[in-house]
Write a structure and sequence with these properties.
alpha/beta, 41% helix
Length: 289
């Protein structure tokens, strides 16, 4: 099995925006954000996920690259929404890089637009991005993307509650067509690890699912953060897991969990069996009120 630490990709939405329902500290200061990035790099994380829509995230990541002279030592994946070439050049300026490892379409509908795919391919041919792809939310878009020969990277939602892709032929298609799969939302924007008393009213429907999750993992001796992260990390169909951290302590905890020598197989099997059907409202943050 691939070393689990090598599958970790630090997402930077939390560094540029106030992000996640379990975020109690808000957006970190610029200096704190730089410390988070530096700690990640020093502890083996070499891939960073960002987007032009993530507030100041690209600029902060660029400052980190410049300060530590890392432009050629880390991989950055960014997501764009509009004029691909112009926006990508703006992102590169903020990132202080000549190219990114990955440029993804931020709007899933754009993969059905031949012009957008052609512009992505042009950016790759110009050397602005080594790999191109898309970030998707729905299984039908993931399957469609897996069949597109032009795409290299596909970012999907996948976690204990959102196992919809396991009911499709997505992973089989992706492997057949040599796609790299990045799974985001291992903690479902914090819902999988939030204390029960802090669950917002509009997500009270998650309580029965979380109660069942607690029963299963307690039986196997795991905590929710452990179970949520290892559930995604130990899926051999997933190449990388994109996660976020609000502060250095959270990041340290996630790195430690990925390094733990534990047998999670039985717990993972039970979680796969018990959460095949979860309300779409619960697993889709874009639908949350």
């Amino acid at each position: 099995m691939q070393e689990l630490l090598n599958k970790l990709v630090l997402g930077t939405a939390q560094l540029g925006l106030e992000y996640g329902i379990n975020n109690k500290s808000g957006k970190p200061s610029r200096e704190e954000a730089l410390k988070i990035l530096e700690f990640a790099y020093k502890n083996g994380i070499k891939i960073f996920d960002t987007a032009s829509a993530y507030g100041s995230a690209e600029e902060i990541l660029g400052g980190f690259c410049k300060r530590c002279n890392l432009a050629d030592k880390i991989k950055v994946i960014t997501k764009i929404k509009r004029d691909i070439k112009a926006e990508l050049n703006e992102s590169l300026a903020r990132l202080k890089m000549n190219y990114v490892d990955g440029c993804l379409l931020h709007e899933p509908k754009d993969i059905r637009n031949e012009k957008m795919i052609e512009l992505l391919r042009e950016a790759k041919n110009l050397g602005l991005a080594k790999n191109i792809g898309v970030s998707v939310y729905e299984p039908k878009d993931a399957v469609y993307a897996a069949e597109l020969s032009e795409l290299d990277y596909i970012q999907v939602s996948y976690n204990v509650f959102d196992q919809r892709l396991d009911k499709t032929n997505f992973f089989e298609l992706a492997k057949k067509n040599s796609k790299k799969i990045f799974a985001r939302s291992p903690f479902l924007q914090g819902l999988l690890i939030i204390p029960e008393e802090e669950i917002p009213a509009h997500l009270k429907g998650a309580k029965p699912y979380l109660a069942k999750l607690n029963r299963i993992i307690a039986k196997h001796g795991f905590l929710r953060k452990q179970a949520a992260l290892r559930f995604a990390l130990e899926n051999e169909n997933i190449d990388y897991v994109v996660f976020g951290a609000d502060n250095k302590n959270q990041l340290k905890e996630i790195i430690n969990i990925s390094n733990q020598k534990i047998d999670f197989n039985q717990c993972r099997k039970e979680l796969k069996n018990e959460f095949k059907e979860v309300s779409k409202y619960i697993i889709s943050p874009n639908l949350w009120e």
